[in-house]
C-alpha cells in the first residue's frame, strides 16, 4: 500500500501545484523576455498591478488593526457577554463559508447605485460600488477572518495572567499591550499579515462583482488576467500570473519562516 | 497597610463565589486564607487586588474605600499561582517592570532591581529568561517583581502550589522570614493546612464563599467554632453516637449530637501503659500504617472506627490485637451549637496523695 500511496501523492502534488506553475512560467516566456516585458508594460497591466498593490496595502493595514482588536475583545473583554462572544466568534468565520462572489453581490445589493445607502454616498460625491472603496470593502470582507483566527489562539494560549500582573505593577492597557501582549502575539500577527496579503493579491470573485472590471479604472491584476484569457492573449495572462505567483511564493516562504519563529519567543 | 473588608459578595452568573465576608487585617500581619479548592479564596484575593470587582460590599485600605480604584492605583503586589512572569523578558527586566512603568531614573531602577535580586538570592541569574529557571527561582522572581514598586500590601495566590515538596518547605520559611523582615502586610491563599499553620500569623478559613473562622493557628485548632473548621483543620473521625464511648455517657443529654475526635485526642496501647485504667475501654486494632515518623493506627471500639497515632518508641501493635483505648476529649456538635467535652472518667477516682 505504502509503495502505491507515496508516488500517488507526488503525482497529485505535481499535477495540481507544480505543473501549473511551470506552464505559467513557460507561457510567459513563449515570446522570450521581450514578450513578457511588452505584456507587463501595457498601460492596463501597470494600472491593474497598481490597483492590486493599493488594495493590498490598504486592506492589510485595516485588517491588521481591526483583526487584532477584535481578537483582543473576543478573548479578553469581560464586558462582552459570553453569548455575544459566541455569536461574534461564529460571525467572524462567515466569509470562509460564503462564496466571495456572493460576498461581492451582497455589497452591490447593499451599496450599489440603486440603493438608499449607495445613492446617499453618490450624492455626497463618493462612489462606492464600481470604484475603489467597494473593492476595498469586498477584499476586507474576504480577508477578515484571517487575522482574527491567527491571533485568537495565541491570546488564549498565553492567558490573561501576564497582563493582570502588569496591571498590578501599575501599567495601564496601552503600556501593557506594547510591552507584554505584543511581544507574545507578534509572530501570529506577522503570519496573519502574510496570509492577508496573499489573499488580497489573489482575490478575484468578490472584486470582479463589485468592481465591474472596468479597464484602466477598476481592474485589478487578477481580473485583468481573466480578461486577457477571454481575449486569447495568453502571453499577457501568463506574464501577469507569473508576477502574482512569484510574489505569493515569496510570501509563503516568509510565512514558513514566521511560523517557525512563532514557536520560539 | 491596614485593611477592612465589609460584607463582601461576588457572584459569577448564578454562582455565588463569595458570601458576606467581613474581616480586618492589621498592618504588618501575615494572613493565610485557607480552605478547599473552589471555595472563593482566590476571588477574595483578586477583589482585594482590583482584578475582580465585588458584586457588593466595601474594601477599605487605610480608612479609604478603594472599590472603584483600578489595580494600578492600589499599591499592591500580586504573586500569581503560576507566577505569570513576562516570558520574553529577562529576570532583570521582569523585576524592573513596575519601576519602568513609573518612569524612574535608570540608575535608581538598576540599584533597586539589583538590591531585590540580591535579597531573593538570584544574583547571577539576572540575564536568564523565565524558561531557563527552576520553579523555586521563578517563584522568587515573581516575589521580587511584586516587591519592586514597594507595595503596601502583598497578595500571594497559592504561592507554593507549583513547587515540589522538598523545596516548598525551604521556600515557606524563606518567605516567612522575608515578609517579617520587610514588615509588609501580606495575605496568601492556600489549600494546604500545614502551609497555613506554619507560615501565617493568622488564618482565615473560607468554605463555600463564607468566612468560617479567623484567628491564630493555635486558636483555630483549639477552639474550632464550626463543624467545618473542626473537620478541616487536623485529621479527625466523626462518631455518630459518642455516648457509647467510655467517659462520654453524659452525651445522651443532647440528642442528635455527633462527635468529632482527633487522632491526638486518643491513646491506644496495652492496659499497663495507662495511668487511669478505669477510663479506658477495649478495642481491636484493624490496620496499622507507617507514617514516616509514627504509626497511624485504626482501632475498632464497638461499632466505631477511630484513628490515632502511636509513637515508634513504643511496642509495635499488630492488626487483630486487643488493646486499651483512652479517648481524652471529643468535639461535639449539632445543628445549632458546638462545644468540647472532656472524658468524665479521666479524673482519678481514687487519688493517692503523698
From TrEMBL, chain A:
Protein name per its UniProtKB record: Sulfate ABC transporter
Major subcellular location class: membrane
Function: Part of the ABC transporter complex CysAWTP (TC 3.A.1.6.1) involved in sulfate/thiosulfate import. Probably responsible for the translocation of the substrate across the membrane.
Membrane topology type: Multi-pass membrane protein
Keyword annotations from UniProtKB, A to Z: Membrane, Sulfate transport, Transmembrane, Transmembrane helix, Transport
Gene3D superfamilies assigned to the protein according to its UniProt record, in alphabetical order: MetI-like
A Pfam family that the UniProt record links to this protein: BPD_transp_1
UniProt GO cellular component terms: plasma membrane
NCBIfam families in the cross-refs: 3a0106s02
Domain (ABC transmembrane type-1) ranges: 49-253
Family matches, as InterPro entries: MetI-like, MetI-like_sf, Sulph_transpt2
Organism, scientific name: Paenibacillus darwinianus
Molecular function GO terms recorded: ABC-type sulfate transporter activity
Location(s), subcellular: Membrane
From TrEMBL, chain B:
Keyword GTP-binding: no
Any one GO MF annotation of this record: ABC-type sulfate transporter activity
Catalytic activity: a quaternary ammonium(out) + ATP + H2O = a quaternary ammonium(in) + ADP + phosphate + H(+)
EC number: 7.6.2.9
SUPFAM superfamilies (UniProt xref): MOP-like, P-loop containing nucleoside triphosphate hydrolases
Domain ABC transporter: 3-233
A Gene Ontology cellular-component term: ATP-binding cassette (ABC) transporter complex
InterPro entries: AAA+_ATPase, ABC_SmlMolc_Importer, ABC_transporter-like_ATP-bd, ABC_transporter-like_CS, Mo/tungstate-bd_C_term_dom, NA-bd_OB-fold, P-loop_NTPase, Sulph_transpt1
Pfam families: ABC_tran (PF00005), TOBE_2 (PF08402)
UniProt entry tagged with the keyword Nucleotidyltransferase: no
Alphabetically ordered keywords of this record: ATP-binding, Nucleotide-binding, Sulfate transport, Translocase, Transport
Subunit: The complex is composed of two ATP-binding proteins (OpuCA), two transmembrane proteins (OpuCB and OpuCD) and a solute-binding protein (OpuCC).
Protein name as catalogued: Carnitine transport ATP-binding protein OpuCA
Lineage, broadest ranks: Bacteria, Bacillati, Bacillota, Bacilli, Bacillales
